[in-house]
């Protein structure tokens, strides 16, 4: 979506100036405040003061119009799978081996997958975002019609989270979309899946590595991670029948026998009980074919892009190989 269209959505005179500014139209904000007062017993006057301090950020509207997931695989992969990120992943696994082993034992998620999530999301906590979370969520909730419902819900969850965790909603920083901390949890995910792994009485995903690692493990367990199943298998194809099975969605649909019958050639023996989906990735040298299994689908519950999930899987493998 072009920035020009986003300017129209935001109802501002121009997007040429990316300087944060007060919200022009407070009508929807006032209605939102009334909802919070009625549904969750917030203090309306305090919320009005809070939102008077929030700022509409045109740079956020520009950023959401250019997601990395719109790139082809051959451009997307080098962003996350490169020597710097692999070596930093090795260092992270070595430094936090005990915490990763504890989380893996508790939640059944491999240490390298937890590590790769943190590597893809924030370079292992080094780049967790600089936007005020309140500004991000308010900008998208009230000035980005394509996903108003989603971001209004996340803004509500953020204010509830801030009250529950005794956090100042003006102080927290995150991504342009409002994702927070080392694992980049949205507020709804924070409330559902963040854990106090070191039992210090706080769920701190910004500076507490134990909590970040444990929360990622808990997230995947709650979304159905199966420790006994593979994630993805590179395959070859023959004939034409396989084309009908290629999916944009990684939701596993076909058993191994169906895939073989359609011309999918597996490099190794695969448990016949597993179900997977056939996906295609654009490589500069030609198409790559992969069968992705249940656990790949679980990774897409973190981010629904198949490119994202594949980058997590491949970064995890590269980190293990480099160690």
Question: Would you kindly provide a written description of the structure presented here, covering whatever features stand out?
Answer:
The chain has 323 residues and is α+β, with helices and mostly antiparallel strands. Among the domains are: 3-66 and 129-179, Bacterial muramidase (Helicase, Ruva Protein, domain 3, Orthogonal Bundle); 232-292, no CATH class. Helices cover 50% and strands 9% of the residues. The chain contains 15 helices and seven strands. It has helices spanning 3-10, 27-40, 44-53, 58-64, 73-80, 83-95, 97-107, 111-122, 133-143, 148-165, 187-193, 209-222, 256-261, 294-299, 306-322, and strands at 131-132, 173-174, 232-237, 254-255, 264-265, 275-283, 286-292. The strands form two sheets. It has a five-stranded antiparallel sheet. A two-stranded antiparallel sheet has the order 1-2. A hairpin with a 2-residue loop joins strand 6 and strand 7 (286-292). Helix 9 packs antiparallel against helix 10 and helix 11 packs across helix 12 (209-222). The protein is globular. Mean pLDDT is 93; it is low at 1-15.
Spatial shape: globular
Q: Count helical runs.
A: 15
Question: What is the number of beta strands?
Answer: 7
Give the oligomeric state: single chain
**Uncertain spans, ≥5 residues at pLDDT below 50?**
1-15
The fraction of residues assigned to DSSP E strands is 5-15%
Provide keyphrases for this structure.
disordered N terminus, 5-stranded antiparallel sheet, 9% strand, alpha+beta
């Amino acid at each position: 979506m072009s920035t020009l269209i986003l300017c129209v959505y935001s109802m501002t005179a121009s997007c040429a100036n990316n300087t944060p500014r007060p919200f022009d139209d407070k009508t929807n904000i006032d209605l939102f405040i009334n909802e919070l007062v009625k549904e969750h017993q917030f203090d309306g006057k305090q919320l009005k003061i809070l939102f008077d301090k929030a700022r509409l950020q045109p740079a956020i509207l520009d950023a959401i119009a250019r997601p990395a997931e719109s790139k082809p695989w051959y451009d997307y992969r080098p962003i996350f799978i490169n020597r710097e990120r692999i070596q930093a992943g090795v260092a992270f696994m070595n430094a936090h081996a005990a915490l990763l082993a504890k989380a893996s034992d508790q939640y059944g998620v491999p240490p390298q997958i937890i590590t790769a999530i943190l590597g893809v999301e924030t370079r292992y906590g080094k780049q967790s975002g600089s936007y005020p979370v309140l500004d991000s969520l308010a900008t998208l909730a009230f000035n980005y019609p394509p996903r108003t419902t989603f971001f209004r819900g996340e803004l509500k969850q953020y204010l509830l989270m801030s009250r529950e965790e005794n956090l100042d909603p003006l102080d927290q920083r995150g991504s342009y979309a409002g994702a927070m901390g080392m694992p980049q949890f949205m507020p709804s995910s924070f409330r559902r899946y963040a854990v106090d792994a070191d039992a210090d009485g706080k769920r701190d995903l910004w500076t507490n590595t134990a909590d970040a690692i444990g929360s990622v493990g808990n997230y995947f367990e709650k979304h159905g991670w199966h420790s006994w199943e593979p994630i993805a298998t590179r395959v070859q194809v023959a004939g034409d029948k396989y084309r009908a099975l290629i999916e944009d969605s990684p939701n596993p649909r076909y058993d191994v026998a169906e895939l073989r019958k359609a011309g999918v050639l597996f490099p190794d023996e695969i448990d016949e009980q597993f179900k997977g989906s056939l996906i295609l990735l654009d490589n500069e040298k030609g198409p790559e074919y992969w069968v992705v299994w249940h656990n790949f689908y679980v990774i897409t519950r973190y981010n629904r892009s198949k490119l994202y999930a594949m980058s997590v899987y491949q970064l995890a493998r590269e980190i293990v190989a480099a160690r």
